UniProtKB/TrEMBL annotation:
Gene3D superfamilies with a match to the protein in the record: 3.30.1330.30, 3.40.1280.10
Ranges of residues in domain tRNA/rRNA methyltransferase SpoU type: 117-260
Signal sequence, start to end: none
Lineage, uppermost ranks: Bacteria, Bacillati, Actinomycetota, Actinomycetes, Micrococcales
One of the GO BP terms on file: methylation
Alphabetic keyword roster: Methyltransferase, Transferase
Top-rank taxon: Bacteria
UniProt xrefs under PANTHER family: RRNA METHYLASE (PTHR43191:SF12), RRNA METHYLTRANSFERASE 3 (PTHR43191)
Official protein name in the record: RNA methyltransferase
GO molecular function terms attached to this record: RNA binding; RNA methyltransferase activity
Length: 263
């Protein structure tokens, strides 16, 4: 494990970690098949256990021991708090970052092969919501997560952090666009249940009482909800009964409620 102390924030060896607060810049060095950033020793350890390989580490001195068993041959750049903040653009309170190589994406058939409960996220662009939905999926028994092409990246730093690293333990992949996705999901034996507001929607508790053996829950954005094509592809429209003048929940909260009901 090469340990290299770096005192200059402009050092080119730290380029993977520069300006992490800017999503547009991250897309330049985190393309599909490229890199993603894991933050905190706990998250890095989960990525390591999932078989993901690090390209390098950026740590503050007091966190060096936390990554010693994870680095292998990857260089570990040790920096001061001030250098870490100057490079990344924010205070790195969790002390350890890793630039990780993205694994090859799994096929849809592989991800849902034995799944009885699948969460589908359509066009959720907020990384925090994506991370929270993955955490709910991991904690409440979903076997897989599928994300639409326009959905925020589950391996973006904020998504990974909010998920507490559970994006590494729940199998996931990108879903083809509708209507192409529907026959692929049905071939896998999945009943498509769309969470949406509709006059003919089935209350979640009623649906859960006689749930199909294999279910895929479709979740859309808070503003627009699921797309017309997603609703047309659904076998059942399901709603969470609400009160207090509230008509819906945040997508991550709704995912958790629905997953708990169908666990």
């Amino acid at each position: 494990m090469p340990v290299l102390r770096v005192e200059d924030a402009s050092d080119p060896r730290l380029s993977d970690y520069r300006d992490l607060t800017d999503v547009a810049l991250r897309r330049v060095i985190e393309p599909a098949g490229g890199l993603y950033i894991a933050e905190s020793a706990k998250v890095i350890a989960r990525a390591h256990r999932a078989g993901h390989r690090a390209r390098s580490f950026l740590v503050q001195e007091k966190w060096l021991s936390e990554v010693e068993g994870l680095a292998g041959e990857a260089p570990v750049y040790v920096v001061s708090d001030a250098v870490a903040e100057s490079v990344t653009g924010y205070a790195v309170h969790r002390g350890a970052l890793a630039a990780m190589h993205r694994p090859a994406p799994a096929s849809l058939a592989e991800v849902v092969a034995d799944a009885r409960l699948v969460l589908i996220l359509e066009d959720i662009v907020d990384h925090t919501n994506v991370g929270a939905a993955f955490r709910a999926a991991a904690g409440l028994g979903a076997d897989a997560v599928l994300v639409s092409d326009r959905c925020a990246d589950p391996l973006y730093r904020r998504s990974v952090r909010v998920s507490m690293g559970t994006v590494f333990q729940v199998p996931w992949t990108r879903l083809p666009a509708w209507p192409d996705a529907a026959p692929l999901l049905r071939e896998a034996g999945l009943h498509l249940a769309a969470l949406a507001l509709a006059d003919d929607a089935v209350p979640l508790d009623v649906f859960a009482a006689d749930r199909p053996e294999r279910v895929a829950l479709l979740m859309g954005t808070e503003g627009d909800g699921l797309s017309r094509r997603a609703l047309e592809a659904a076998d059942t429209i399901v709603t969470i009964p609400m009160s207090g003048g509230v008509d819906s929940l945040n997508v991550a909260a709704a995912s958790a409620v629905a997953l708990w009901a169908l666990r």
